[in-house]
């Protein structure tokens, strides 16, 4: 009852003597503190917004400009060449606006206009400098004089300590590649996959497309590239993600694991308390724009930060024909799922974030709750795991009003979604397959204990292990990886007591988490069961194998003067050939965030050079090492082309979209877009900021993350290069395919890595 009384700020009673008003000082204090926090937050956002808008200049430079102009005028020097006098003539003369005041005001207006012009000049100069990509094509360890000069100029124009969004207006736009270059690179990429007759036919179709349809389609793309911030990203989000009508669980969402070797506490509520508090601290800095800009290479190349904006308070909303992304601001609650019940937890108390000990207290209350799920509540979240159309129809019919709408709104407007899972997961070196179960749990769980539409789900297991399941449409893996890396640092700066609890005291004034209420009729429960059946069939078909490869890592690979990514990709080609006896179209995800609103591009890793090397390994050709070098150089060059906007697949994808909008049938584009990616790969970026010295703290390395198979008869492979001596592989496929076996492929990858290493050992012995 004490909590109920404190929830009311005032009470009044009508008596014959009048109205008696009773105020609750405690609640009024909380209201006051909340207001102070809100206005403080707005002030910081305003300040950082100004810093971002005037970047690369600073607000103080405006004052310097005004003083310089005023000083020159007092010295009877007119730097405006008559413009100040022209401004003064426009200003009216009155008792309040004397001639002297007119002069001062005119000088200030001129100084401001000059200052804004200089900002634009600096910004476009920086944009021109960032459009230079010659540095990325230079040999490793060597730097030309022109690149050194370029670096100096970028540093000079970048200013000091740029914030997360400072570079946005200065980033160049993604260029539209030349049609001839794209088609030539495409034909080169499919050559090792086609026989002579198939390749000649493809050349004919490509030539006809280049001559007849491509010029018209290219013109529309060029117009869009001039008009939009990015000619790819909005179509990519809409057509690849939001228009998909199949399940997003497994097919789209991806996961990220906890630290590989250690669990800082085995108390589930305590681990959740510290992690949630760390994430809230990250969100506060993100909303205020206080994170520093992410710099890629050489300490000067900034990355686009556009995707960070929708990390929190974001939900994918189902539609009949297409979904849409709902993003809100200033959400102050969290939704927690435990044993079939949904709970709402307020994240603020007295105008501040709940402390880790207070969050632990709230989560422990949920764990201690023994109430049963309401009818239809247990598997409700499976609606987000099944097909999109049934979910969209059910949402319109059964969740459009009343208590169901109120509860659904609480979920969809929450900062993010937390699952307190009853299972125990993690990595046990004595039982390596435990990682496989851990991966499957993070990817799909029970199909009803994750809200797959939320921007991300935080999962905390019974033994204190954690992980994240991320909805893919709003952002790519490096974005959630940035948050995950910062948040996991809580182990060092928050810590735990000797008993494993969060540090801090218990707050008896906190209101209990509230149960969400539902009124789900039988008809809706049948739809829920239908979605669950589809999702469970999909989840049960996923075959996962996680390989902890600790024989060597990037330290040894770099000593062989090879890119770790190129080394691994070539090993994957060798492993796949040994696994299936053939080559296949291979997808490697690269990023294009050096451009404004850039997302990803495809690197086609199966090349003429890599297939030649693989065949030489099987034939034990003496030229194996030379062929490997040639293959690695080719892969690195393709990766660089993709990063700098000269990739193949996004250009062809956009040409295809334009052709559909114009109702133009293109046999070439239809063929290109229908080709299956039977080997889909990606490197998981878990150490972007290097907050933890993995050499000093080897137990705190991340375990990486993964995703489901893209093709029914193919593999999905995610790898994480950790420190100097460790690489983790997350391999997925489908049990229903007789052609694939994730464990078998994992063993082939391990052997391929060792066989390539042996090549270099032989070279060293020979020398």
UniProtKB/TrEMBL annotation:
Domain Choline/carnitine acyltransferase: 174-751
Keyword Ribosomal protein: no
Reaction it catalyzes: (R)-carnitine + hexadecanoyl-CoA = O-hexadecanoyl-(R)-carnitine + CoA
Main location: mitochondrion
Domain of life: Eukaryota
Pfam families assigned: Carn_acyltransf, CPT_N
Pathway: Lipid metabolism; fatty acid beta-oxidation
The keyword Protein transport belongs to this UniProt entry's keyword annotation: no
Enzyme Commission (EC) number: 2.3.1.21
GO-annotated biological processes: carnitine metabolic process; fatty acid metabolic process; long-chain fatty acid transport
Gene Ontology annotations for the cellular component aspect, listed alphabetically: mitochondrial outer membrane
GO terms, molecular function: carnitine O-palmitoyltransferase activity
Residues covered by the Carnitine O-palmitoyltransferase N-terminal domain: 1-47
Enzyme active site: 472 (proton acceptor)
Entry keyword set: Acyltransferase, Fatty acid metabolism, Lipid metabolism, Membrane, Mitochondrion, Mitochondrion outer membrane, Transferase, Transmembrane, Transmembrane helix, Transport
Annotated function: Catalyzes the transfer of the acyl group of long-chain fatty acid-CoA conjugates onto carnitine, an essential step for the mitochondrial uptake of long-chain fatty acids and their subsequent beta-oxidation in the mitochondrion.
Family: Belongs to the carnitine/choline acetyltransferase family.
Protein name, per record: Carnitine O-palmitoyltransferase 1, muscle isoform
Organism the protein comes from: Pygocentrus nattereri (Red-bellied piranha)
Gene name as annotated: CPT1B
């Amino acid at each position: 009852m004490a909590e109920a009384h404190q929830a009311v700020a005032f009470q009044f009673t009508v008596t014959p003597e009048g109205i008696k008003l009773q105020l609750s000082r405690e609640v009024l204090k909380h209201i006051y503190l909340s207001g102070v926090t809100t206005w403080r937050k707005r002030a910081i956002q305003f300040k950082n917004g100004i810093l971002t808008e005037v970047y690369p200049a600073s607000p103080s430079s405006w004052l310097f400009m005004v003083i310089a102009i005023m000083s020159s005028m007092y010295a009877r020097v007119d730097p405006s060449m008559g413009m100040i006098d022209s401004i003064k003539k426009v200003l009216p003369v009155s008792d309040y606006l004397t001639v002297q005041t007119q002069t001062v005001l005119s000088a200030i207006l001129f100084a401001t206009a000059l200052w804004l012009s200089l900002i634009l000049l600096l910004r476009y100069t920086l944009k021109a400098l960032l459009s230079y990509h010659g540095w990325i094509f230079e040999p490793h360890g060597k730097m030309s004089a022109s690149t050194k000069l370029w670096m100096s100029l970028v540093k000079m124009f970048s200013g000091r300590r740029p914030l997360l969004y400072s570079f946005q207006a200065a980033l160049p736009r993604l260029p539209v590649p030349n049609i001839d270059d794209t088609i030539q690179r495409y034909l080169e990429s499919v050559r090792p996959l086609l026989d002579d007759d198939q390749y000649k036919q493809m050349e004919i179709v490509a030539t006809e497309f280049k001559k007849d349809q491509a010029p018209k389609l290219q013109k529309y793309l060029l117009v869009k590239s001039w008009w939009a911030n990015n000619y790819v990203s909005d179509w990519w989000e809409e057509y690849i993600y939001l228009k998909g009508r199949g399940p997003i669980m497994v097919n789209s969402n991806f996961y990220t694991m906890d630290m590989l070797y250690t669990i800082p506490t085995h108390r589930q509520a305590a681990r959740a308390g510290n992690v949630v508090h760390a994430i809230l601290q990250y969100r506060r800095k993100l909303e205020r724009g206080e994170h520093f800009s992410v710099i890629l290479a050489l300490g000067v190349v900034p990355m686009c930060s556009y995707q960070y904006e929708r990390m929190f308070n974001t939900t994918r909303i189902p539609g009949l024909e297409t979904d849409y992304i709902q993003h809100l601001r200033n959400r102050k609650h969290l939704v927690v799922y435990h044993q079939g019940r949904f709970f709402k937890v307020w994240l603020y108390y007295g105008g501040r974030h709940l402390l880790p000990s207070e969050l632990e207290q709230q989560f422990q209350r949920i764990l201690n709750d023994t109430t049963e799920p309401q009818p239809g509540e247990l598997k409700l979240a499976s609606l987000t795991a099944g097909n999109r159309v049934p979910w969209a129809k059910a949402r319109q019919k059964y969740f459009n009003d009343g208590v169901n709408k109120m509860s659904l709104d609480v979920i969809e407007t929450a900062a993010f979604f937390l699952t307190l899972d009853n299972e125990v997961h993690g990595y046990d070196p004595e039982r390596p397959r435990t990682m496989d179960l851990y991966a499957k749990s993070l990817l799909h769980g029970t199909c009803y204990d994750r809200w797959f539409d939320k921007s991300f789900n935080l999962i905390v297991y019974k033994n204190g292990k954690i992980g994240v399941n991320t909805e893919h449409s709003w952002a790519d893996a490096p974005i959630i990886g940035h948050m995950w890396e910062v948040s996991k640092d809580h182990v060092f700066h928050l810590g735990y007591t000797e008993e494993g609890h969060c540090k801090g005291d218990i707050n008896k004034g906190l209101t209990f988490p509230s149960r969400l209420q539902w009124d789900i009729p039988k008809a809706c429960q049948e739809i829920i069961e239908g979605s669950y059946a589809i999702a469970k069939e999909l989840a049960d078909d996923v075959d996962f194998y996680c390989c902890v490869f600790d024989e060597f890592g990037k330290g040894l690979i770099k000593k062989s003067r090879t890119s770790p990514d190129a080394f691994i990709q070539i090993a994957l080609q060798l492993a796949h050939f040994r696994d299936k006896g053939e080559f296949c179209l291979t997808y490697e995800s690269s990023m294009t965030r050096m451009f404004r609103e850039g997302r990803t591009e495809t690197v086609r890793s199966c090349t003429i050079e890599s297939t030649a090397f693989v065949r030489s390994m099987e034939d034990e050709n003496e030229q194996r090492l030379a062929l490997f070098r040639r293959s690695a150089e080719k892969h690195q060059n393709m990766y660089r082309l993709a990063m700098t906007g000269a990739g193949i697949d996004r250009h062809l994808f956009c040409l295809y979209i334009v052709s559909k909008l114009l109702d133009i049938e293109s046999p070439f584009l239809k063929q290109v877009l229908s080709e299956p990616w039977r080997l889909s790969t990606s490197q998981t970026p878990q150490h972007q900021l290097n907050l933890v010295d993995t050499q000093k703290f080897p137990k705190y390395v991340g375990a990486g993350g993964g995703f489901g198979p893209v093709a029914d008869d193919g593999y999905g492979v995610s790898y994480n290069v950790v420190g100097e001596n460790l690489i983790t592989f997350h391999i997925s496929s489908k049990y229903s395919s007789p052609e694939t076996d994730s464990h078998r492929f994992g063993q082939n990858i391990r052997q391929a890595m060792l066989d390539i290493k042996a090549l270099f050992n032989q070279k060293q012995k020979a020398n």
